[in-house]
């Protein structure tokens, strides 16, 4: 791939407008590594040519956004959010809203590891707190990428993906072997999760209200202005007293009138005011 600085700037502008992602000025290598194959297949020689063609070819536009927003993900990433959920938050939510179904939003769910980890956590809670979650839990998982959503819905993973954070015990309990080096999430775990296409720059109104939102390791890709907008709109989707979970390296600066910081030792979560 060849590209001038001006072409790279045009591509950066396109990507920010399309999905909010802000590319650093030194990220040409990342663009090349993610788009070289696609551009080769399409016979496109430069970023400038690509920017021209994505204005008129919606499928190519989708493929480019898809390639640029696909991120590697882990099972039970950072561990503590799932432990806090299981050992503290679920009991608190049940007490505050007895008999009501709990709703959790997994934003930017990628290939499904986070929402399925949440579903396994719910199952582990239920096994030690029989009858407490009578109304059940619904997990709504959203992502911008059509290919990621299709992979997540299928719920099948190879040994490389399985090896990223999943214990042998959970593999045995929650997955069915599908052949050499492939496993599928069991139907009971899948049944709790509903996958939907959503660009975080667009409206969340159709999602409904949530008790918990997991928006982890996502906001780091956005400008401060877009990040603030997303956090305000997520607050509007949280029920009063609901919780927002961010990534381990992310912090919520400002918005004290909307969110209260809660120390969990380890980790920090944010309670909606």
From TrEMBL:
Cited SUPFAM superfamilies: Chemotaxis receptor methyltransferase CheR, N-terminal domain (SSF47757), S-adenosyl-L-methionine-dependent methyltransferases (SSF53335)
Pfam family for this entry, one: CheR
Gene3D superfamilies: Chemotaxis receptor methyltransferase CheR, N-terminal domain, Vaccinia Virus protein VP39
InterPro entries linked to this entry: Bact_Chemotaxis_MeTrfase, Chemotaxis_MeTrfase_CheR, CheR_C, CheR_MeTrfase, CheR_N, CheR_N_sf, SAM-dependent_MTases_sf
Keyword terms, alphabetized: Methyltransferase, S-adenosyl-L-methionine, Transferase
Biological process, per Gene Ontology: methylation
S-adenosyl-L-methionine found in the keyword field: yes
Catalytic activity: L-glutamyl-[protein] + S-adenosyl-L-methionine = [protein]-L-glutamate 5-O-methyl ester + S-adenosyl-L-homocysteine
Record-given protein name: Chemotaxis protein methyltransferase
Organism listed in the record: Pseudomonas delhiensis
